[in-house]
Every structure is written in structure tokens, then in C-alpha cells.
Design brief:
Elements (H helix, E strand, L loop, with lengths): L1 H25 L12 E3 L6 E3 L4 E3 L2 E3 L2 H14 L1
Antiparallel strand pairs: 1-2, 3-4
The structure holds zinc ion.
Length: 79
């Protein structure tokens, strides 16, 4: 019976040590992009998207085709 208690104590110790090592990783942002990928922000809504997923118009980036069109429309209205 002592062995079981000892085994149980060891398992709890291992879990406690593991949780200490796992915790720092959880502090990172919830949806990490692919490592090394540059993040750009949409010129319309400001949301951050990986550069490979973003649409580009000159120096501006967009999260979706809709926002790209919206940006083009707003440029027309200004001029
Ligand atoms: Zn957007």
C-alpha cells in the first residue's frame, strides 16, 4: 500500500513540474501565426493578418477582397 501512495505522490510531483514548464507557453497570443511570418494590418479594419493571407494594393494590405474594394471606393470618393 505504501508503494501506491509513493507512486501517487510521484505522479502528482511530475504533473506539478510539467505544469510549471507548460505555463510560460500559454502566455503567448492565442493564435500564433506560422513562425517567422510577417504580420500586416488591414488598412480598412486594422485586423492583423499574416502577409501571405493578406491582399496587397501598393503599400496597403487588406484582410479580404471586400476591404480591398472598400478601400478602392474610398479613394474614388476622396479624389
Ligand atoms: Zn479588413
Amino acid at each position: 500500500m505504501r508503494i501506491l501512495i509513493l507512486l501517487f505522490a510521484v505522479i502528482i510531483l511530475i504533473l506539478a513540474i510539467r505544469s510549471l514548464f507548460i505555463k510560460p507557453a500559454k502566455n503567448k497570443p492565442s493564435k500564433p501565426p506560422a513562425l517567422g511570418e510577417k504580420m500586416v494590418s488591414c488598412a480598412v479594419c486594422g485586423i492583423h493578418v499574416p502577409e501571405s493571407n493578406a491582399l496587397r494594393l501598393k503599400e496597403h494590405f487588406f484582410c479580404s477582397e471586400e476591404h480591398l474594394q472598400e478601400w478602392k471606393e474610398s479613394l474614388k470618393n476622396e479624389s
